[in-house]
């Protein structure tokens, strides 16, 4: 379809002629309406000036305004596409420097966000179908065009491309969400238990909507000497940074415990990790950790700015243990001390650690928070429940009391440890 003319480009808007010498016979064209408040940008890739004039006439007769540019070769088109991405590309399949699907492939590569409509001759319908199968949104046969068909094809091609892009973005979003879910599930701990002397009942509920992991963290490890070690903590702030730091602290705690670090040294090492890994100097973490040797009638507890813990006897009595503690991690790097408190624990007693998200919901008229005293009251009223049900009831009751004031909006982690008679 070559004519020997030099490459050119043009802009068509409000019916203004692009080839004045050839368009003079058409007369003036009235201002055309704009599509949905925006003028669609269209790039015509066509080496024949006569066919370019035909496209302009179809646009004018269709009563629309288009921002139309013209490139006479694929090389010129690539330059135009690099300058400004159109909404639609009208592509002739017979260009001086590219033919058929080769031209389409290059255009799709350079204009992946634009709709593509190919232009074919009367005897080339199969080429048009092949182009659509290869990624074009539509094809038009030059000898069978009228203005309405032409304008409608461009409009539908742009809409179809937008729909395809939205569907692709939605699918990508779903895949990312699934990948994030798998990642977050993989970052939640699996208690490392060597025997059945202790039962672990853990519940975790992130405060972020649709998240699986928050800034709260917990873990349980049983070492080869039979000692049970447990941890519950809370990183300040919300979002992925807090969640990442929580995972880092949990993994570090497990590693240090397995390596033999205990008590003051253990928290000093965690303090160093937090300071090294936090994103901002004001970030801190609270935690409670405990250890119980096999057969011992006491639990060693350390607390770093964290709430107390509950102890439930096998008879169903519940008490709150508020042991002495030290500062939060990250507040006094290198100088803090955390005392170890020995808490009596009889045979088959259970101990529950939790984060402040469980007790900070506002209750009643919203003037006060549930607090440790409110949680203790709930625990005593439901102390006869089985362990897993007991934990679930505490959480659901706290949520119900906070519901009038917006519910529990912080992360919640609860860890109930229950030793049997062989412990």
From TrEMBL:
Name the UniProt key words of this record, in alphabetical order. Hydrolase, Phosphoprotein
Q: A Gene Ontology MF term for this entry?
A: phosphatase activity
Limits of the Response regulatory domain = 41-157
Which protein are we looking at?
SpoIIE family protein phosphatase
Annotated GO biological processes are:
phosphorelay signal transduction system
* Domain of life, per lineage: Bacteria
UniProt xrefs under InterPro entries = Bact_Sigma-Reg (IPR052016), CheY-like_superfamily (IPR011006), PPM-type-like_dom_sf (IPR036457), PPM-type_phosphatase-like_dom (IPR001932), Sig_transdc_resp-reg_receiver (IPR001789)
Q: Which organism is it from?
A: Streptomyces beijiangensis
Keyword Phosphoprotein listed:
yes
Is Phosphoprotein among this UniProt entry's keywords? Answer: yes
- Where 4-aspartylphosphate occurs, the residues are 92
């Amino acid at each position: 379809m070559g004519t020997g003319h030099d490459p050119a480009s043009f802009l068509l808007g409000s019916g203004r002629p692009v080839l004045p010498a050839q368009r003079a016979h058409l007369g003036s064209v009235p201002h055309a309406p704009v599509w949905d408040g925006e003028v669609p940008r269209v790039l015509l890739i066509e080496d024949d000036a006569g066919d370019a004039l035909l496209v302009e006439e179809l646009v004018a007769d269709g009563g629309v305004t288009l921002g139309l540019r013209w490139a006479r070769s694929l090389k010129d088109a690539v330059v135009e596409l690099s300058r400004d991405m159109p909404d639609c590309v009208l592509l002739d399949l017979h260009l001086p420097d590219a033919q058929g699907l080769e031209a389409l492939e290059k255009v799709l590569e350079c204009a992946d966000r634009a709709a593509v409509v190919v232009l074919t001759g009367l005897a080339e319908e199969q080429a048009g179908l092949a182009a659509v199968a290869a990624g074009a949104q539509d094809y038009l046969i030059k000898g069978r065009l009228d203005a309405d068909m032409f304008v409608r094809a461009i409009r539908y091609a742009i809409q179809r491309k937008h729909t395809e892009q939205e569907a692709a973005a939605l699918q990508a979003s779903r895949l990312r969400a699934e990948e994030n879910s798998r990642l977050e599930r993989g970052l939640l701990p699996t208690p490392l238990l060597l025997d059945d002397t202790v039962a672990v009942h853990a519940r975790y509920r992130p405060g972020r909507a649709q998240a699986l992991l928050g800034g709260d963290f917990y873990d349980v490890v049983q070492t080869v000497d039979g000692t049970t070690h447990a941890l519950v903590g809370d990183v300040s702030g919300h979002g992925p940074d807090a969640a990442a730091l929580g995972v880092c602290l949990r993994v570090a705690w497990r590693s240090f415990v397995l390596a033999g670090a205990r008590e003051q040294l253990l928290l000093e090492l965690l303090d160093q990790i937090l300071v090294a890994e936090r994103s901002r100097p004001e970030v801190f973490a609270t935690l409670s950790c405990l250890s119980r040797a096999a057969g011992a009638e006491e639990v060693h507890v350390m607390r770093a700015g964290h709430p107390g813990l509950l102890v439930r006897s096998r008879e169903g009595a519940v008490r709150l243990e508020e042991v002495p503690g030290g500062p939060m991690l990250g507040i006094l790097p290198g100088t803090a001390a955390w005392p170890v408190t020995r808490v009596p624990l009889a045979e088959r007693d259970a101990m529950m650690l939790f984060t402040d998200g469980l007790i900070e919901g506002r209750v009643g008229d919203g003037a006060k928070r549930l607090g440790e005293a409110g949680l203790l009251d709930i625990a005593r009223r439901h102390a006869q429940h089985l362990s897993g049900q007991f934990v679930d009831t505490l959480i659901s009751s706290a949520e119900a009391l906070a519901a009038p004031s917006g519910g529990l909006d912080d992360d919640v982690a609860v860890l109930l440890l229950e030793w049997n008679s062989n412990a």
